[in-house]
Write a structure and sequence with these properties.
alpha/beta, six-stranded mixed beta sheet, 10 helices, 17% strand, DUF4143, DUF4143 domain-containing protein
């Protein structure tokens, strides 16, 4: 196992090697300080603000915080404008999300569609590159996170998404989500004409399974995967 951790601990603490020695509830303040100062602030300041022209650095930081809070959820740019002060326009937000993606900390997955234009105009689904970022900004301890079923479900989904988004870099594989009304598929992997649909939830829900069925009928993916897990309380 990774760092001799069980799966739940890896899902919450994310596996950054730097703070691994104090990735526990006893030293949670040290772990939080490391994630916030040594990782988040350093990445934003050095890898984004020093390398790119950012007219609204406070907005970029707020967008990052919002994306971590909503990781695993779809949020339209219009809703982002409503939650972020001095956000300007959707073009600015989309550009800042691209910068965060380039820095390897947060991305917005596009909705899978047969046409690229429709996919790019979709509402993004936030996805952190490491669940430590989501946990650190949640204000929930490891124990509290496991007891919060809704949050833990999104953390599990984000852990799978983080693995996928890191593994496909440089491979030519594209990662999407899919949703129509209340039907959803968490992840869709595409390379050429080869499609893989993945659904990962912390509890089995019939409507989520039917999302795979609807997607399957519409797009005929080559592979399906469904996984479910519950934390050890």
């Amino acid at each position: 196992s990774f760092f001799n951790w069980d799966l739940d601990k890896f899902i919450y603490f994310g596996g950054y090697p730097g703070p691994v020695s104090f990735a526990n509830e006893k030293n949670i303040s040290r772990w939080l300080n490391y994630i916030n100062d040594s990782l988040i602030e350093t990445t934003i300041s050095r890898d984004i603000l020093l390398m790119s022209q950012v007219n609204k650095p406070i907005l970029l930081r707020r967008l990052f915080q919002l994306g971590c809070t909503y990781s695993g959820q779809i949020l339209s740019y219009q809703k982002m404008l409503g939650q972020l002060q001095d956000a300007g326009n959707t073009t600015t937000l989309a550009h800042y999300l691209e910068l965060l993606n380039g820095a390897g900390i947060l991305t917005g997955l596009n909705k899978y569609a047969n046409h690229k234009v429709r996919s790019r105009s979709s509402s993004p689904k936030f996805q952190v590159y490491n669940t430590a970022l989501m946990s650190a900004l949640s204000s929930k301890t490891f124990t509290q996170a496991k007891k919060d079923k809704e949050f833990w479900g999104r953390l599990v989904e984000s852990a799978i998404g983080a693995y996928l988004i890191n593994e496909i870099r440089g491979t030519g594989i594209e990662l999407y989500y899919w949703r129509e009304q209340n039907m959803e598929v968490d992840f869709v992997l595409k390379k050429g004409d080869f499609l893989t649909a993945i659904e990962v939830k912390s509890s089995l829900k019939k409507e989520r399974l039917s999302g795979l069925e609807v997607f399957g009928k519409a797009f005929k993916p080559n592979r399906f995967y469904f996984g479910a897990t519950q934390p050890k309380l």
